[in-house]
Amino acid sequence: MKFMDRVRGTRVEKDSAAVFWLGQAGFLIKTAEGRQIVIDPYFSDCVERLIPEEGLGFKRLMPPPCEAGELDTDVLIISHEHNDHFDVDAVGDLIKAKTEVYTNCIVAKALGEMGFDQNRIHVMKKGEKIELSEFSILPVDCDHGELAPEALGFILDFGFSRLYYAGDTALTLPRLQVPMEIQPEAAILPINGAFGNLNGKEAAKYAGLLKCKVCIPCHFWTFPLHHGDPQEIIEHMGESAPDCRLMLLCQGESFLLKK
After folding, report:
1. pTM (2 decimals)?
2. What contacts 238, CB < 8 A, 6 or more positions away?
3. Is residue 6 packed enough to be buried (19+ CB in 10 Å), middle (13-18) or exposed (0-12)?
4. Per-10-residue mean pLDDT, the chain, length 259
5. Where are the domains of the chain?
6. DSSP at 249
7. Tally of CB atoms within 10 A around 181
8. Is 211 exposed, middle or buried (0-12, 13-18, 19+ CB in 10 A)?
């Protein structure tokens, strides 16, 4: 079955949401009302194109689950400006006439310069909650170092459950206090262990500190230089987060977020 046929055919009951992994750090969330929330989708080969000096280091290894234009994006959330999160080659297909974009100040400026309607581009600021239909977005701090000092994580609160998207971050606990205090029910964490990100062992430790019930690893198996070994988080979850279920998705697979 084609990916978008699977998305359209997935029935989402009240007090639940379907979370699909798009590969890399990208996710699509389908709500009970049928809206599509798309987070950090990477559909093109723009990273390899823009960093040719790395040769095969940023060659795309896993194809996207569908074409970018097939997504019926209602809300597009972009955590920061790195091109495996902000896909400059695909963003024109992702943003529809109805799409509202929520992002950091750097991506918002870039989208404005690309000619997108700035009235539908919203800058997220840490700690300032955004109330939308069916859910809210709370932007939170993360530590992506000097690579992207304005990078964000965020917590999506659907009322029945809260989903934390850590974004690209190191395990710098003083900067991760808000998510740990909130204790979201589900957390999406990077495991690649390169460019300042959590590795599998650190992600397992963080899942334990978050006290989340479900952990979804991401940010692996797209580029050779990004590394990432899901076996590492598998081996450490039992010790570091014994009460957390590890939801290891294959690309295009979904997880049902519910009460």
Report:
1. 0.97
2. none
3. middle
4. 95 97 98 97 97 95 96 98 98 97 98 96 98 97 93 98 98 98 98 96 98 98 94 98 98 95
5. 3-258
6. P
7. 8
8. middle
Identify residue 19 by its one-letter amino acid code: V
Task: Specify the DSSP element, H or E, that contains 39.
Answer: strand 36-39
C-alpha angle 144/147/152, rounded to 5°? 40
Contacts of 204 by beta carbon, 8 Å cutoff, 6+ apart: 215, 233, 236, 237, 239, 240, 241
Q: Which class for 32: exposed (0-12), middle (13-18), buried (19 or more C-beta within 10 A)?
A: middle
DSSP for 155-217 reads EEE-SS-EEEE--S----GGGSHHHHHH--SEEEEE-B--TT--BHHHHHHHHHHHT-SEEEE
The CATH architecture annotation of domain 3-258 reads 4-Layer Sandwich (3.60)
Q: Distance (Å, rounded) from C-alpha 88 to C-alpha 82?
A: 10
Q: Using CA atoms, how far apart are residues 25 and 215, in angstroms rounded to an integer?
A: 14
Tokens of 75: 């809300």
Query: What is the CA angle 185-187-138, rounded to 5?
Result: 85
E strand or H helix at 230:
helix 230-240
In the block, residue with structure tokens 């999506």? 156
